[in-house]
Amino acid sequence: MDDTPKTNVEHDSLLMHASGRPGKIEIVPTKPLTTQRDLSLAYSPGVAAPCKEIARDPSLAYDYTAKGNLVAVISNGTAVLGLGDLGALAGKPVMEGKAVLFKKFADVDAIDLEVDTKEVDQFVNAVRYLGPSFGGINLEDIKAPECFIIEQQLRELMDIPVFHDDQHGTAIIAAAGLINACELTGRNVRDIKVVVNGAGAAGIACLELIKAMGCRHENVILCDTKGVIYKGRESGMNQWKSAHAVPTEARTLAEALEGADMFLGLSVKGAVTPEMVAAMAPQPIIFAMANPDPEITPEEVRTVRKDAIVATGRSDYPNQINNVLGFPYIFRGALDVRARTINEEMKVAAAKAIAALAREDVPDEVAAAYSGRRLRFGPEYIIPVPFDPRLIATIPPAVAKAAMESGVAQKPIIDMAAYRHELSERLDPMAATMNAIASEVIGNPQRVVFAEGEEEKAIRAAVAFRNAGYGHPVLVGREDRIEDTMKAMGLGSLDGIEIHNAAKSSHTKEYTDFLYKRLQREGYLYRDCQRLVNQDRNVFGACLVAMGDADSMVTGLTRTHAVVVKEIAKVIDTRPNELMFGLTMLITRGRTVFICDTTIHETPTAEQLADIATGAANKVRQMGHEPRVAFLSYSTFGSPQGGETTRAREAKEILDRRSVDFEYDGEMGANVALDAELQKVYPFTRLSGPANVLVMPGLHSANISYKLLHKLGGGTVIGPMLIGLAAPVQIVHLDANVSDVVNMALIAAHDALKR
Ligand SMILES: NC(=O)C1=CN([C@@H]2O[C@H](COP(=O)(O)OP(=O)(O)OC[C@H]3O[C@@H](n4cnc5c(N)ncnc54)[C@H](OP(=O)(O)O)[C@@H]3O)[C@@H](O)[C@H]2O)C=CC1
Ligand SMILES: CC(=O)C(=O)O
Ligand SMILES: [Mg+2]
To answer: SS in 3 state form for 139-200?
Structure first.
């Protein structure tokens, strides 16, 4: 029994692994298995059909089975993290972990297989015959030098990608970190002096990749448990170590590190001391990647070197250089083009894509997953974080493209832009809708006003909006302030972004005249209008839109929804015969519903409910959904009867008289509206399926229900979108993040396009 006291993390991790269903993985069927017919299709006798087809043409396995999206994580447990040879069974928690990371980050189905042998031939034989089951093989935590032979042999024997994660996954991420660390410290890979500690799977692979990137052989010293691997050393050698032996006087790690620019640690906890770091070159680059504990902690480095760039393999320090950033996405790209192998070109493409992503502005929700830590390219952020949702749309396309260009793709991707969309939709339920809107907007760029143009979030959103090709952002604010913020945040140039300073604008007179005409009989003097135009960004921004100097507007970061609505109403009317209201889109459990009115009318009349339904149906159709509107109530078709249920009934009757071109019915309970089976109890209902537009009887129920669904149901929300204005304006929540602002700006641009 191990008497060593457990740390909090260890204690909590044991509890987590043992809680509920033990371990971290289960298998979920993808086809219905509820009726006898289901069974006869999925299993005998129906299943014979795909079997016979695959026997005739093996490539059909990719069409009829899970093979194409299935990866085996295979280990013999001889190098479990940096814990050494714990054996196959003890490595299982890590392998289950890798399998769930495949799923979580890249929607690759993966299963762990622990093979209980240290013999190379036995291991190779155990794996080589598994080829038919899988689309790829991820070898994990197999010690060197056996891992080199195993991988080599399996690559030759199998016709699917075989990839030893500890070698190549690690090397790719380390290379990406190196590219950025060199950029930050003004170094060139060709000139840097590197010390690699650990001459095993990860160490040798990192070394080989950085040499392939230009690092000079004579500039790298490799060390292992016996110290420096110098030319002529005889003990503890193998052919992989010998290939990297250099003539040097240095014999210990400490000697090797004197004056070195970079330390790459792929060995064990505590292998490096602060004294060794102190002897390195100025601005040393230290990647202490041993897991679970690094060769030296960032705190220890800081005691001697404030100027160091430090990375570890752990999640709880900045700069996590860990293969989790690589293997899910590399396999995603390889599987999607049905690559025969994962070659050097694909690895280099992945490293470059990861490095480039770290230099881009980071969405707020990513920072939120890291306790609000500001993630901005610099010494504390040289590599993207694992919870960055952009990784899925960034790395696999780079890998797939490299596979296609290097001739190993058996199923090339024709439309890369569509592939990127498809990737982002795999993990983000909102992405499909937003991508559909984006694809319309991109071909017809609109000028969108970001009224709170001096706000950091608005500026970042405008930059993201421009960079995504969604249109031309127009910022309302002072140029110098905006430029200072851009500079401080490293947001690049203002190209393509228009700035309007309300106080100095040449439009002021024109806008004041316009506003005065609207408000002179509402108690406003000319100078009041002048002040509004000069000083109120929402008013000025709305004037830009109303007067045709911009197409639409987004605002709301600094004032409440109700206040913004009042300000906008001074400038922009609602469309004739329409009603202004809030429409909230919610995606939950694979379903998309629109709820209204979530913002404006506290107790709408029957007439207003009918208007809301019509406005919502139009908008929903614009967004690519065929509306099925339900007027909701606590009663369904007259049962129970109550005074409050009549408005919904009357709204339906008003629509009957208007003969509108969409499906609607009511009044009905939410259960009936959303359940096709329950609707069969009312065979007269006109809904042809579950409703997707829920017209609530009042603001209370609308607003409360979308927030409940969001918080308790785990739904994803867009909006409330403001519907019914004569010129499009969208209002974000006060606590919106940059992505929310970009999404609402996109909707505002789409509104303008569809006007
Ligand atoms: N951050 C990341 O993403 C990853 C980190 N790693 C980490 O890298 C380390 C090595 O893993 P891996 O390559 O798979 O394992 P291997 O068993 O293949 O290699 C281990 C190597 O480390 C060397 N080593 C052990 N102790 C010391 C020491 N005190 N000083 C110098 N060298 C030492 C061994 O030397 P010798 O040859 O003399 O026995 C051997 O060369 C682990 O800590 C692992 O967690 C691995 C993969 C990914
Ligand atoms: C991260 C990893 O794969 C390792 O430490 O072995
Ligand atoms: Mg590993």
So the answer is: ECCCCCCHHHHHHHHHHHHCCCCEEEHHHHHHHHHHHHHHHHHHHHHCCCCCCCCEEEECCC
Please tell me whether residues 615 and 560 are part of one structural domain.
Answer: no
CA 408 to chain centre: 27
Instruction: Tell me if 198 CB under 6 Å of ligand 1.
Output: yes
Residues 209 and 128 in one domain: no
According to DSSP, residue 341 is labeled -
Provide mean pLDDT across the span 515-534.
96
- Is the Cβ atom of 236 under 6 angstroms away from ligand 1? yes
Look at residues 399, 423, 546 and name the one whose alpha carbon lies nearest to residue 105: 423
| Same domain assignment for residues 153 and 222 | no
Q: Is residue 18 in a domain?
A: no
Does the pLDDT of residue 698 top 90, yes or no? yes
Binding positions for a divalent metal cation are 140-141, 166, 291
pLDDT digits (tens, 9 = 90+) for 380-425: 999 999 988 899 999 999 999 999 999 999 999 999 999 998 998 8
Question: What residue owns the CA closest to ligand 2's atom 3?
Answer: 166
Domain extent for 399: 168-405
Task: State how many domains the chain has.
Answer: 4
Q: Measured from the CA of 236, which atom of ligand 1 is nearest?
A: 38
Q: Which of 71, 78, 145, 152 is nearest to 113 (CA)?
A: 71
150 plus 265 within the same structural domain? no
The pLDDT mean for the chain works out to 94
Confirm or reject: Cβ of 144 under 6 Å from ligand 1. Answer: yes
The CATH number of whichever domain residue 271 belongs to comes to 3.40.50.720
Task: Measure CA 739 to chain center.
Answer: 11
Give the span between the Cα atoms of 108 and 497, in whole angstroms.
39
Mean of pLDDT values over 143-149: 98
Same domain, 277 and 391: yes
Question: Quick check: CB of 233 below 6 Å from ligand 1?
Answer: no
What per-residue confidence (pLDDT) applies to 511?
Answer: 97
Could you identify the atom of ligand 2 that is nearest to the CA of residue 323? 1
**Residues forming the active site:** 98
Band of residue 368 on the pLDDT scale cut at 50, 70, 90? low
Whether residue 308 is contained in a domain is answered as: yes
Instruction: Find the residues whose C-beta lies inside 6 A of ligand 2.
Output: 81, 141, 165-166, 291, 313, 322-323
Whether residues 482 and 630 fall in one domain: no
- Give nearest CA residue, ligand 2 atom 4: 81
Residues 400 and 471 in one domain: no
* Ligand 2: nearest atom to the Cα of 324: 1
